[in-house]
Amino acid sequence: MIYQVRLMKGLFTPERSRYKLQDAEAVTHIGRNIVILYVASLLLFCLYGFLGIGSESFSKELVGVGESEFEMGKLLILAGNAVAGLLYPTIYLFLIALFVWALTDIAYLKILIVQMIIFIVQLLEKVLLLPFFVYMDINHDANPFSLGVISQYLVSQEYVIHLFSEITIFQVLVIAIQYYYLKKMTERNTYALLAVIVLSYIAIWLLNALLAYVKVSVFV
Known about the structure:
The protein starts with a strand and ends with a helix. Helix 3 packs parallel to helix 6, helix 5 (67-103) packs antiparallel against helix 10 and helix 7 runs antiparallel to helix 8 (158-166). The chain has ten helices and two strands; from the N terminus they run βααβαααααααα. The chain has one domain (2-213). It has helices at residues 7-12, 14-22, 30-51, 56-60, 67-103, 108-135, 148-154, 158-166, 169-182, 190-219, and strands spanning 2-4, 26-28. It has 220 residues and is mainly alpha-helical.
C-alpha cells in the first residue's frame, strides 16, 4: 500500500489515516509537506518577531539608543526569530522522531509522518495565542492555555513558572494524538511507548524553560 501524506486528513480523520500509515509500504509527498511546514513555521516566527512577541526583555535594551542601533536591534530580533522558526520544526519533527525511533520498534519514517501531522497543532497553538499576546499584552508565562498562570500563584521560582507555562492543552493533545497513532505500530508495551513520548516532550519543556530563564536573566 502507498501512503500519500495529507496532513490535514491525518489530523481530522486519524482512524483512517492511521490504518493506511500502519500498512504503508511506500510514502509519497513527504518532502513537499516538510517544506510547507518549514515555511509556515518560518513565517509565523517572523511575524512574532515583527510584532515583538517574546522579545520584550531585549526590546527594553533598545530604549534610548540611536536610530541606527534601534534598526539594527529590530533586525537582530527578526533574524533570531527566523532562526528559531527553522529550529522549531527541526526539533519537533526530526529530533523527537529520532528519540522515539531509538527507543521503540517503529519505523523512523512513520514516526516522522506522525510528527508532521501533530506539528500542525503546534503551529495552530501559536496562531491562536497571537491575539492574546498582541491585544491583551500578556507574556508567555500568562498563556491562558497553559499551567503558567496557576503556577504563578503557587511558586515564585522563575524557572518553574517557565516550565509550567510550557504545559498547555495543545501539548497534551499532541501527546494524545501521537500515542493514538503509534500504539498500533508497535509490538512492545504501549505504556512504555507512552512513557517514551511523554519523556521526549518533558525534555523539550525543560529545555524551553531553561532558554526562557537564561534569556530573562541576561537581558533584564
